[in-house]
Amino acid sequence: MKFCWCTIAVQNMEESLKFYQEIVELSISRRFTVEPGVEISFLGDGETKVELICGPSYKVKNDNIEGISLGFEVKAVDEKIKFIKEKGLEVDSGPFQPNPNIKFFYVKDPNGVSIQFVENM
């Protein structure tokens, strides 16, 4: 079985697209309207796919979603933290280095989803 994508209901498509394009560095692969007022965007190339869906029946219920995170590999955690701060965002938690082989930290997307940036050392 192959994992296809993760779907996130968003309150503001433009704000969420900006975050996933600029901060996570995913490009838009598809963007379309399903019906009046309901828009879907797919981001990512290859195996990594994130689906954003925005519409009146897809309201975000909580701006602090717990228990779910999306992880993305970066070359250097320290450089990514600097980049995050330059963009005016806050690190939600970390950085953590539980062993010599991995280092990571978390930020929140505009909808409260935890985004983990991981450096495999």
Low-confidence stretches: none
Which fold name corresponds to the CATH topology? 2,3-Dihydroxybiphenyl 1,2-Dioxygenase, domain 1
Q: What is the residue-mean pLDDT, rounded to a whole number?
A: 92
Number of strands: 8
Approximate helicity band? 10-25%
Strand portion? 35-45%
Structural class: alpha/beta
Name the CATH architecture.
Roll
Features:
2,3-Dihydroxybiphenyl 1,2-Dioxygenase, domain 1; four-stranded mixed sheet; 2 helices
3D architecture notes:
- This is Glyoxalase-like domain protein.
- InterPro entries: Glyas_Bleomycin-R_OHBP_Dase, Glyas_Fos-R_dOase_dom, VOC_core.
- Pfam families: Glyoxalase.
- It comes from Desulfosporosinus acididurans.
- The protein is α/β, with parallel strands linked by helices and 121 residues long.
- The protein has one domain: 2,3-Dihydroxybiphenyl 1,2-Dioxygenase, domain 1.
- The chain contains two helices and eight strands.
- The two termini are 29 Å apart.
- The mean pLDDT is 92.
